[in-house]
Amino acid sequence: MSPQHFALAWSVLFASALIGGTALKLWLAQRQQRHVLAHREAVPAPFRDSISLEAHQKAADYTVAKLRFGLWTTLFSAMIVLVWTLEGGLHLLNTWVSSTFGTALGGQLALLVAFAVIGALLDLPWDIARTFGLEARFGFNRQTPRSYALDLLKNTLVSAVLMLPLALLVLWIMQVAGGWWWLWAWAGLTAFSLLMMVVYPLVIAPLFNKFQPLPDGEVKTRAQALMQRCNFALSGLFVMDGSRRSAHANAYFTGMGAARRVVLFDTLLGQLSPAQIEGVLAHEVGHYKRHHIRKRMVVMFGVSLAGFALLGWLSNQVWFYVGLGVMPNLFAPNHALALILFSLVLPVFGVFFSPLAAATSRKHEFEADAYAAQHSDARALGEALVTLYRDNASTLTPDPMYVRFYYSHPPALQRLERLGALPEAAPNSTHTPATA
Ligand SMILES: [Zn+2]
């Protein structure tokens, strides 16, 4: 095959993946919508005592509204990828930037920045519509236009401070490190992300939220007893003012090693009893004790190493650029172009791997639940889950195929079934025969 044939074959492969992936997403959303609406009129039997029909229907309506919104963002982003690549958008931008700023390191950085800024501007209207339209309509949004604008400003500044030096570092490595640049660039990015695990909770998160030590009380005593029981070192328990932005509740662990901290959203404290919060925390400890965090990191770093190796090879292939609608500079570096094209291509093919990632994640959730059931009260965790499903308006009746592709957590019914089936959960757990 001649180089032109390679480029053409690559164009066709890319366009097929983009169209196929988009069609797949629309099909899955369609399935989910049909499934949720078909179950809208009745609360599933196991939840009849804990979730009202009204709450169930709100969850259905919220799910459908999110799907319809997602339909437009899916189509829009597919169109944007198409415009950047096959329609020649990136080629145009590159021509303009390189004739204005040159093709040396500064010009390369300018191209990355221009691409990132345009991308952010294109996303902004959607994010505004999501926050003040969709989320507000279902009573979840707590942001005012003013606080939203302030967040946006802070986010932009923080990204600039962090990302500009990082981008410059990668571009510089690409320029000076020769054929093995991708290995060095990967090592640099890996070191950066490890550093961020420590820096983020201590420096960046406090810029956006207030963190206060968990006040004395039953939640704290229970949490401390649990950590002791599980032999889990912790540097602190904090409450975050999540209610400033959203009514959605959450809890998470952050940091590494002895710098680990537990963060509870204030919204969670308002919704759950101390015993239920203990169940949620036991689940989170389970993720650590079953080595999910470490496994996830190893997989992430392994996948990114493979990605960088692939990029190292692709960046030297003229067909990679030409097939995506860009004429590479023949006598100047194409580093920024290669990075941008790669970032556009990855998600297009990534969709097809999402069931793999989602399945692993769901398996981990079951394992963390099992750990929680062993070291805490499975029933309390079950109640907590039901409350969170209700208050976050998460549907209880998702489409199984949609779950397979997107759900990082098993559906409510499956999780509760497993929790209840554990011997620790109910001492006399004999399965009651189904009545005919
Ligand atoms: Zn989990």
UniProtKB/TrEMBL annotation:
Q: A single GO molecular function, which one?
A: metal ion binding
Q: Name one Pfam family in it.
A: Peptidase_M48
Indicate where this protein is primarily found: endoplasmic reticulum
* Cellular location(s): Endoplasmic reticulum membrane
Q: Name the catalytic site residues.
A: E284, D369 (proton donor)
Q: Which residues form the Peptidase M48 domain?
A: 214-419
Obligatory cofactor(s): Zn(2+)
Q: Which UniProt keywords apply?
A: Endoplasmic reticulum, Hydrolase, Membrane, Metal-binding, Metalloprotease, Protease, Transmembrane, Transmembrane helix, Zinc
Which residues bind Zn(2+) per the record?
Answer: H283, H287, E365
**GO BP terms, alphabetized:** CAAX-box protein processing
Where the record annotates domain CAAX prenyl protease 1 N-terminal, the positions are: 32-210
What InterPro entries does the annotation carry? CAXX_Prtase_1 (IPR027057), Peptidase_M48 (IPR001915), Peptidase_M48_N (IPR032456)
Q: Which domain of life is it from?
A: Bacteria
Entry cofactor note text?
Binds 1 zinc ion per subunit.
Q: Which family does it belong to?
A: Belongs to the peptidase M48 family.
Question: Could you identify this protein by its name?
Answer: Zn-dependent protease with chaperone function
Q: Which organism is it from?
A: Thiomonas bhubaneswarensis
